[in-house]
Amino acid sequence: MKVPFDLYQEGIEFFLQEAELIDDGKFREWLELMTEDFTYRIPVRVTREKAAPTEFSDLASHMDETKNTMEMRVIRAYSEYNWAEDPVSRTRHFLTNFRATMDENAENVIQYKTNFLLYRGKFDLPTFQFLSGERHDTIRRVDGQWKISKRLILLDHATIPMNNLAIFI
Amino acid sequence: MCQEFKSPLSKRARAMLEDFQASLEQGISKIGVLNDEEIHQAELERVFGRNWNFLAHESEIPNKNDYVLRSIGDDTFIVNRGSDGEIRVLLDVCPHRGASICRAAKGSSSHFQCPYHGWTFKNNGDLVGTPSFKDAYSGLDRKEWGLTQAPRVEIFHGFVFATLDENCPDLKESLAGMGWYLDMIFSLQDEGMEVLGEPQRFIIKANWKIAAENFSGDDYHLMTLHKSTYDIGVMQIPLRENMKGYHIQAGNGHGISFSIDLESKDPLFFYYPEEIVKTFNLENLSEKQLELARGSRVCVGNIFPNISFLMLPLSPDPKNVPPTPLFTWRVWQPKGKDEIEVWNWFMMYKNTSEEFKRASYRAAMASFGIAGTFELDDAIPWETITRNAKGTFAKKNMKLNLQMGMEGMGTAKQVMEWPFPGIAYYPRYEEGNQRHLYRHYLKEMLSEE
């Protein structure tokens, strides 16, 4: 059903704050925004014939994470040996085209489809990279706090123009 | 290839390569070859144009008419299973005016039609349609204008290879000692391996030789570059213990490295769980292959020039999931002097449960691949090496050290009575595999045959 405007706005505010935590490198605080059953998946995209129902692989992924594995990645990110992010990438999330739906019987759960553009620059290099795509997020209210329970990232890239995904989308 | 079309090596490129060759046996490599346009152009002909290239695994095209689009160097090929069931490698170039005829990376089609003038080909390559044939082409012998096929194709345990050089020795002969080790891995199960989904593809701004060198036998980098994987528990074979094992120069530039415990009372088999080991048909292995497989913990290698693989047990979630054996197989496709496209497949033995395949996939994706906790870090030095190799001063003056394990360097010694193919050293504090890769590379590059 259509999400009431106030709720819709609350969700957008939540995602903007969440993106700020990522872009500011506050990953531990970011983890706190995940429900215990959180999942995060980036399926591999394959250029298919026009008749194919989807370009997204149901088998292959770039990432397929739980809260536990995200915690592991965050611990790694702050460790002395995170060469992948030393110096750290400068990321900037641009979130737009928020589309929300919810189930009549579940007023504490909202699904969003969001377009994103993620800038990544690093070191003193004048070059930079963008990732573009759509996020399918589910947020759930837990003890009065909105948390993300599911993030599916549908990239606009079949070949990813980056050397790693040591950043978060 | 028409001999007159083969580019001669420029005086400059030849001098660079000969300079490298002159220092290699002292364990000195030259950074300049890692980012140079002339060298890159010569490699496309002399290395990628002459050797066996991996294109696809049979399991990616299981049904008649299935195809995938793949590359050798800078040429694009349709790898398909024809309506007759036969696997072919067809150049994706319409013989009429040169346009591409395939518009997807994967699909199923009995025919391919060029969008330019509509020439249409059966998936065995035959030209079957030329619009307005009577008015336009009534004298044309269609039989002469089919798609161009890769000169030779061979299938090895389901892995489809092609070479652009008709005179290339057979795949088995080209693989030299490496064939024996690959036979050991792929024959463990009667059913062999299959891909687990489509390959990951991503771009590293690095020269392909750096990646090939790394997988040939660079175990030394684990203790610094990959230290985080020990700290978070992804890798659970202790560092020093893991250096116990062998580097094997397997011939023709191929290198393979085993972390091994030949004294282990229990069979190790890369730590495959018992229910998987039960599916192995050990009769497929010779006595010696079995001896090696029993003691193996980790195996990593590079098939010359740019095909790398790795089998080892890793944990995707150390708190909850035990280390799970995984297999990654990748091609470092050269996209230029300073860029590779990584094609990264995860595979597993076909006759294992869906549950185990998923577990193995998770372990593989979590550690190797674009977001793998191992692989996240690899591209960092690879890219700076490549950038540094362009430096005018560095290119002319830098010598790099490739001396580990040479006489008087460290503890590695050649194993004199090595019972398996190739030349082996123990332990893995050793860079003979990398020298072996470059020795063969330089021979290929400087050959005027």
Which helices and strands occur, and which strands form pairs?
The complex is a heterodimer of chains A (169) and B (449).
Chain A: H1 5-23, H2 27-31, E1 34-45, E2 56-66, H3 67-77, E3 90-101, E4 109-121, E5 128-142, E6 145-155
Chain B: H1 11-24, E1 28-30, H2 37-48, E2 53-57, E3 66-72, E4 75-81, E5 87-91, E6 106-108, E7 111-113, E8 120-122, E9 127-129, H3 133-137, E10 152-156, E11 159-163, H4 171-175, H5 177-186, E12 193-195, E13 200-204, H6 208-217, H7 227-231, H8 239-242, E14 245-249, E15 255-260, H9 274-277, H10 287-295, E16 296-303, E17 307-314, E18 324-336, E19 339-349, H11 354-367, H12 375-388, H13 392-397, E20 399-401, E21 413-414, E22 423-426, H14 432-446
Antiparallel strand pairs in B: 1-20, 2-11, 3-4, 3-6, 4-5, 7-8, 8-9, 10-11, 12-19, 13-19, 14-15, 14-22, 15-16, 16-17, 17-18, 18-19, 21-22
Helix pairs in contact in B: 1-14, 6-14
Summarize the structure.
The complex is a heterodimer of chains A (169) and B (449). Chain A is 21% helix and 44% strand.
**Annotated CATH topology of the largest domain in chain B:** Naphthalene 1,2-dioxygenase Alpha Subunit, Chain A, domain 1
Query: Which sheet architecture does the biggest sheet of chain B show?
Result: 10 strands, antiparallel
Q: How many beta-strand segments of chain B?
A: 22
Radius of gyration of chain A: 17 Å
Count of helix runs of chain A: 3
Q: Which CATH class of chain A applies here?
A: Alpha Beta
Determine the most extensive contact between two protein chains: A-B, 36 and 47 residues
Biggest β-sheet: strands ordered side by side in the sheet of chain A: 2-1-6-5-4-3
Could you spell the SSE succession of chain A in H and E letters? HHEEHEEEE
Average pLDDT of chain A: 97
- Helicity level of chain A: 10-25%
Q: In one word, what is the shape of chain A?
A: globular
- Quickly give the CATH architecture of chain A: Roll
- Measured as a percent range, the helix fraction of chain B is 25-40%
The N- and C-terminal alpha carbons of chain A lie at a distance of 27 Å
CATH architecture level-2 label of the largest domain in chain B: Alpha-Beta Complex
Please give the oligomerization state of what you see. heterodimer
| Number of discrete domains of chain B | 2
